[in-house]
Amino acid sequence: MKSKVLIARRKAGNAIxxxxxxxxxxxxxxxxxxxxxxxxxxGIGALNLQTFTMDTPAAGSPGGLRNAIxxxxxxxxxxxxxxxxxxxxxxxxxxxxxxxAVYGKVVRFVNDVLLSAPSILIGLAIYQLLVxxxxxxxxxxGSVALALLATPVVTRTTEDVLKLQPSALREAGVALGSPLAxxxxxxxxxxxxxxxxxxxxxAFARISGETAPLLFTALNNQFFSxxxxxxxxxxxxxxxxxxxxxxxxLRNLAWAGALxxxxxxxxxxxxxxxxxxxxxxx
Amino acid sequence: xxxxxxxxxAAPKTAVKGKPRGGALDPFxxxxxxxxxxxxxxxMAWVLVSLFIGGWPAFHKFGVNFLFIRSWNPVTEVYGAxxxxxxxxxxxxxxxxxxxxxxxxxxxFLVEFCPPVLRRPIGTAxxxxxxxxxxxxxxxxLFVLAPWFALHIQLPLLTLAKPGSxxxxxxxxxxxxxxxxxASIILAIMVLPxxxxxxxxxxxxxxxxxxxxxxxxxxSTMEVITKVSLPYIKRSAVGAVMLGLGRALGETMAVTFxxxxxxxxxxxxxxxxxxxxxxxxxxxxxxxxxxxxxALIALGLVLFLITFAVLALARTLLGRQKVV
Lengths: 282, 324
What we know:
With 282 residues, chain A is mainly α. Chain A is built from 12 helices and no strands.
């Protein structure tokens, strides 16, 4: 008798648990689908040819996002160059040279913290390094801030993929009489290149939508400009200002910008994932 | 025919010197790698030092009281961090309270119940959503969630509440949907995919034999999850949750869009408020006096110290579990 009650109770408990999991999964997927739905609905409605051929307008006049798109691409490209150089070298040091040294552990730990540090604080720090002393906002400062956000991602993935390379590769290189530096550059980097590329793409996806650090570094620019020593237009800032403005046309522009960024980020993420999967299979 | 090797000529060139050709580059390359690694350390140090230097005038003027003063007034030049700090902590913990059970539910769903056909697509979708920039979530919160919340939850509650009742105290606030609760909901939606993905990965690390033995002993799914899987991943799971908390604490744009940006000490969840990050984002470029700028940077230092503690703990608990 008693055991039957127990079994019934366990069954009921389990049913509630299973139901809870199904419901939460449904709620979460519904919320996320709702976000994507309104993003695409309002974003596509606001997109047209002008979006890509005209610069950001004053309220009430027609305009597009050309200057912001170009500015964002310039800043992200420069940031990625910095981040890949420093990140790959730092990751290589952690994987190949650091060994069990305490210093290596410290760097690894700091890198992990930087990986998820609030981006707005990175913006403040770069403001004090590159904006305040020179009395002016600049696209360069924005790039450095973005680079500081991207580098830890590249470092971490580089270290991880290098550690996955079989030590036979290192030994073979050294046994052939090649110096360690050449072994790393010619053999290890080459065999790990897909993994490193994946890390770079993930880092790019992360910084391309970052807004907070750009507010105090690159600021924004109403006009088309290729000069990165001056304030530089960028998509996130345009979205931020447009979204908070009271004018419908600026808000529409913000939706169009949000859609462009979201699609770009999703696209890069998907490419990175496909690369990583192919790499794993081969 | 025998092949004779002339050792006298070929051998000395490489063997005697003991170092391979191009070996001179070795220390240079190692130095370059070492310098890059050190640069990361220097960057972290600079973040801390610059925030400390920039915030010093404010700390010097207000002392420890900076943390407890409840007013933030650029006109009278009195700055206290109590409002933003409380706002930051409330939104972060509230969003965690909302997101954690749901993320846990999704993770269990994906590992245990999901039809195999859907497992990959849903799993990938969750991971991809973790990568969407926060400003997109912010836009959605401002234009979709806030008006809906104001119309369908805040207004009915306001009309329902009798003057002077507890309900009135709990729900007073401008019914425009820009308040601490909606900000927490947006934050929860933002950290949700991230936490779900990490929890799922952790649950997949539980060895199949262990779980199957538990099933074999007659355990129900709930018992396997709560008594076998969860204890197995306990430590890393706490780390993953802390990492989510770290994100929620430092999140800027999504919150700035929707929290209402009032510096008054929040009275209830339906009241507009501010977080440290949203205050900095809103005011930094408009700060005209040195003290205002300094107070904002001092706020940044407070945020840095809070998140650093949380992230350090998270990383220690996670060990080398792969989380990017």
